[in-house]
Amino acid sequence: MRIVILTGAGISAESGLGTFRDKGGLWSQYDLEDVATPEGFARNPDLVQRFYNARRANCAAAVPNAAHHALARLEAALPGQVVIVTQNVDDLHVRAGSKAVIQMHGALMRALCADCGHRWPAPATMTTADPCPHCARPATRPDVVWFGEMPYQMEDIAADIERADLFAAIGTSGQVWPAAGFAEAAREAGARCLELNLEPSDVSRSFHEHQYGPATQIVPAWVDRVLARTRT
Ligand code: BV8
């Protein structure tokens, strides 16, 4: 059984990390163009660094919730058969114990040198002037994928989706591409597709099954059902 799980901001909502498009979400407080695009970073790097420093502090103070732990339990019970592709830049999946995690939109806790491409653990408070530990140039940015930038590990993700028997999307509104297209790709590859969310996403029609409710309730229940089926 090969299971691919796509997660979005909704899986971390009950850990206290804001989503993007819910009421009061991040994109209602900041203009996406100003803080999540290379153009915004070029225009006002300090604003962008402040935005990510604040999110990095929230992330450090947050803890994984029952949904993150349930996915780690699923992988432990089915070694080598589960991969999480997350759109989230928080580290809650790894902190919950998941091992096979692809962070396609990068990681809040990692720094990237815009000049030489070196990556290192992000300081709690990052400024652009921080010298790169490798090339010493002051070109430090958060290692996250902004709009207009290429998501990470797209080939690995495509290969995982091609081989999937089961594709589940958890806590994502299906508004950001190319992640929003993964369900359709999985369906065409023959996988059973399940949407686990608070409400129907923009791509709900790509899924065979839907379960709606808070992730901390519906994800552990779903994991129990998958494991019960694999035991029979
Ligand atoms: C790309 C990292 C080429 C930073 C993010 C013009 C120019 C260039 C590109 C485009 C363009 N027009 C369109 C595009 C494509 C663009 C895009 O999709 N734009 C959208 C806005 C239309 N995409 C890109 O630019 C991507 N790159 O296209 O490169 C390319 C093309 C093909 C193949 C390869 C490359 C790069 C996109 C990545 C941007 N970076 N994040 C950061 O985090 O600051 S995106 C950002 O949105 C986050 O990663 C977030 O995770 C992601 C998706 O949002 P969701 O996770 O779904 O969160 P959201 O708030 O929307 O929804 C939460 C859901 O949870 C809701 O449904 C809610 O009901 C549910 N929920 C809430 N609470 C709970 C819950 N569910 C369960 N339980 C709960 N308690």
> What proportion strand?
15-25%
At CATH level 3, the topology of the largest domain is Rossmann fold
Tell me the total number of β-strands: 9
CA-atom Rg in angstroms = 18 Å
How does the helix and strand content classify structurally? alpha/beta
Quickly count the helices: 9
Question: Can you tell me about this structure?
Answer:
The protein is of the alpha/beta class and 232 residues long. The chain folds into two domains: 1-16 and 63-105 and 151-232, Rossmann fold, CATH 3.40.50; 18-61 and 108-144, 2-Layer Sandwich (SIR2/SIRT2 'Small Domain'). It is 35% helix and 19% strand. It contains nine helices and nine strands. The chain has helices at 26-29, 32-35, 38-43, 45-61, 66-77, 92-96, 154-163, 182-188, 215-231; strands spanning 3-7, 82-86, 101-103, 106-113, 119-121, 140-144, 166-170, 192-197, 209-212. The strands form two sheets. It has a six-stranded parallel beta sheet with strand order 3-2-1-7-8-9, sandwiched between helices. Helix 8 (182-188) links the parallel strand 7 (166-170) and strand 8 (192-197). It is globular and about 55 Å long. The mean pLDDT is 96. Ligand BV8 binds at residues 8-10, 13-14, 19-22, 25, 36, 87-89, 105, 144-151, 154, 171-173, 175-178, 197-199, 201, 214-215.
